[in-house]
Every structure is written in C-alpha cells, then in structure tokens.
C-alpha cells in the first residue's frame, strides 16, 4: 500500500500564516485580548481575511510559546491570570536560570562581556513606559529587557539550555506585561545594574544569587505579595 505524500506548503500560505501569527502574538502581548478571553478562529479569520487553516496554524504557534491555551472541546484562549501558573513558571526560571548564568560567567569570553555591557547600556537608557503604549511596558523596553537577560545567559554556550530559557521567558513575559503597574516602587535599574556588575566581575556566586532574587521579586509582584522586598527563600 503506497502512502500519499503530504501536500507542500505554498510560500503564499507560509507568508499569510507568519503575518497572522505576528499580529496575534502582538495583540496578546499588547493586552488587546484580556486574560481568559477566548480566541475564536472564525472571528480571527474574518478579521484578518484569511482561511481557518491559516488562523489555526498561527494559534498552534502561540500555544507553543505559552501565550495561549488550547482548551479541550472549547477552542483557544489567552491564559487566565492564575497565581499558580505564574508561580510555576517563576519556580522553573529560578531553578534553571541562575545555574545557566553561573555557567555563563565561568565560560563567557571577552566578546560576551562586551555584549553584556552593551545590552545593559541599552536597557538602562530605554524608557520603561511611553504615553502612547498605556499601562503596559513599552515594546522598546520589553525588547531591551529580553536582550539583556538573554545576553547574560548566552555565555553558557549550551543551545539546549538557552532554548529552554527562551520558552520560559516568553511564557513569563505575558504575565510581566499584565502586572506592569503592580510594583511601582521596584528598583529595576538597580537590580539590572547589580546583575551586570556581578557578571562582568566574574563573581558567579553573586550573579546567581542576584538573579534568583530578581526572579523572586518578579514572582512576588505578580501575586501582589510584595512591592519592595522579595520574600525570603528557605
């Protein structure tokens, strides 16, 4: 019995799928769809003027990034703002990222040092909020923030670990944007400066501890448990 080869994906369909995915991802990040909102393929297809197949492909991609949930017999939805969900993501990041940062500090070369310094400079000079983007972190700051944290970890030289960190970052970015105004007194600038200084001083212990505290503070802010100091870890 011969098997029928799958039909090739046409460049046109690939381009449409990429465009719908990018639009949907940006809309979710921007808060156009609130936590828990249904993402209805039919409505999205009509809005974008594309087929259901193209929309479903885009939805599967945002589900893979943790920016949407696929609900049994109920379609797709933006993740609900669940304390448990975000604390689980935060716990995973606190378990993995300080270890990867320690490796990065120990393995990173001079080029890595230069990239860390440049990424921190850009982050420190980028406004956190802009009037036209409302209560969410500005897109420019969010990207500078991502690049700084990613650059800190890149010195580890392990692409598998970095891919894991990338996925956790994307999943936590949605919560971070939803909670942007929850911790108005938080010293983001100081926290990031201490991370940069410890990494470039090649102090792996201090860098790992600073990152763990940074991530703990973020997790506490998402549940409103703390506004200035992170809870003590045992």
Spell out the blueprint of helices and strands.
Elements: H1 11-30, E1 38-39, H2 41-48, H3 52-64, E2 69-71, E3 75-77, H4 83-107, H5 110-124, H6 139-154, H7 159-178, H8 188-200, H9 204-223
Antiparallel strand pairs: 1-3, 2-3
Q: What would you say about this model in short?
A:
The protein has helices at residues 11-30, 41-48, 52-64, 83-107, 110-124, 139-154, 159-178, 188-200, 204-223, and strands at residues 38-39, 69-71, 75-77. Mean pLDDT is 84; it is low at 1-10 and 225-234. 64% of the residues lie in helices and 3% in strands.
Write up this protein:
With 234 residues, this protein is mostly helical. It has 2 domains: 11-77, Arc Repressor Mutant, subunit A (Orthogonal Bundle); 83-223, GntR ligand-binding domain-like (Four Helix Bundle (Hemerythrin (Met), subunit A)). It has helices spanning 11-30, 41-48, 52-64, 83-107, 110-124, 139-154, 159-178, 188-200, 204-223; strands at residues 38-39, 69-71, 75-77. A 3-stranded antiparallel beta sheet has the order 1-3-2. A hairpin with a 3-residue loop joins β2 and β3 (75-77). α4 packs antiparallel against α9, α5 packs antiparallel against α6 and α8 (188-200) runs antiparallel to α9 (204-223).
Strand content: under 5%
Distance between the termini: 62 Å
Report the sheet with the most strands, covering strand number, pairing sense and barrel closure: 3 strands, antiparallel
How does the overall form come out from the CA principal axes?
A: globular
Rg calculated over all Cα atoms: 20 Å
CATH topology of the largest domain: Four Helix Bundle (Hemerythrin (Met), subunit A)
> Fraction of residues in helices?
55-70%
- Order of strands across the main sheet: 1-3-2
Low-confidence spans: pLDDT under 50, at least 5 residues?
A: 1-10, 225-234
Helix count from the secondary structure assignment: 9
Number of domains: 2
SSE string, helices as H and strands as E: HEHHEEHHHHHH
The CATH class of the largest domain is identified as Mainly Alpha
Overall mean pLDDT score?
84
Total count of strands? 3
Q: Class by helix and strand content? A: mainly alpha
CATH architecture of the largest domain: Up-down Bundle
CATH superfamily of the largest domain: GntR ligand-binding domain-like
């Amino acid at each position: 019995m011969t098997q029928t080869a799958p039909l090739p994906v046409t460049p046109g369909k690939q381009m449409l799928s990429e465009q719908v995915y990018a639009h949907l991802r940006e809309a979710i990040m921007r808060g156009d769809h609130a936590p828990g909102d249904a993402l209805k393929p039919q409505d999205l297809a009509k809005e974008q003027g594309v087929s259901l197949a193209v929309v479903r492909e885009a939805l599967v991609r945002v589900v893979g990034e943790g920016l949407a949930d696929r609900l049994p017999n109920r379609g797709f939805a933006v993740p609900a703002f669940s304390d448990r969900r975000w604390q689980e993501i935060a716990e995973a990041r606190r378990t993995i990222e300080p270890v990867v940062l320690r490796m990065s500090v120990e393995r990173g070369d001079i080029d890595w040092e230069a990239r860390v310094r440049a990424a921190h400079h850009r982050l420190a000079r980028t406004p956190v909020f802009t009037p036209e983007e409302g209560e969410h972190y500005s897109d420019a700051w969010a990207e500078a923030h991502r690049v700084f944290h990613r650059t800190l970890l890149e010195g580890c030289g392990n692409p598998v670990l970095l891919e894991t960190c990338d996925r956790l970052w994307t999943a936590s970015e949605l919560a971070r944007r939803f909670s942007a105004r929850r911790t108005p007194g938080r010293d983001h600038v100081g926290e990031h400066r201490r991370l940069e200084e410890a990494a470039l001083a090649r102090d792996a212990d201090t860098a790992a501890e600073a990152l763990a505290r940074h991530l703990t503070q973020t997790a506490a802010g998402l549940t409103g448990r703390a506004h200035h100091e992170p809870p003590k870890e045992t």
